[in-house]
Specification:
Keywords: DNA replication, DNA-binding, Primosome. The chain is mostly beta strands and about 100 residues long. The protein has a single domain, classed as Nucleic acid-binding proteins (OB fold (Dihydrolipoamide Acetyltransferase, E2P), Beta Barrel).
Amino acid sequence: MTVEDVGFEANSIEIGATLIEREEVRFTPAGIEVFDAVFHHRSRLVEAGKIRTLEYDFEALSYGDTASRLNALAVGAKIRIKGFLATKSMKSRRLTVHITEFK
């Protein structure tokens, strides 16, 4: 299923990052595996004609088969993440990267 299939506005992210911190493997009440971690990103890009260095940490999570594969990664692993931005839970307003695929 794609964004076009469901008719919503686009919300996607693709970013390279290093796994720096992770929670213990856990499961939802429905038995779905969860990956919950912190990643570090560092890059240089051009903004308004000037080189800008970006460096920051961000929270990310994933569910199901993708979470299972992510939970097998060691801290320090460098990956390319694809996913979307959303709140971590219905009770939170803080944005988190929800990982749908990686390599």
